Amino acid sequence: MAELTAQIKAFGEQRSFTKKDQTVVPTVQVVFDLPSNGSKFTDELAITFQGEDAVRALKSPIGTELKVSYNVKSNNWKGRYFTEAKAWKVEGTAKAAS
Fold first, then answer.
1. How many CB atoms are closer than 10 A to CB 28?
2. N or C: which end of the chain has fewer CB within 10 A?
């Protein structure tokens, strides 16, 4: 588990999947600008949002600051590892980009 408070930089592709009970769940990757800690370079992190969190995130303008709790998981497929960060708790903050 990890936590991040950062501003939305961009949105990735919107997708959805269907659960066994035929419920459609929207997903979107939200790209955040990570705090630079004095570096001249900016780092980014894409976190996958699902369900109502995805819907709320898509209504937020670029520059909105969110506090996100997320898990990081890697999967091995044919000897290659794929890593994904998935949000499990999302909170808005009072700050936005100016």
1. 20
2. C
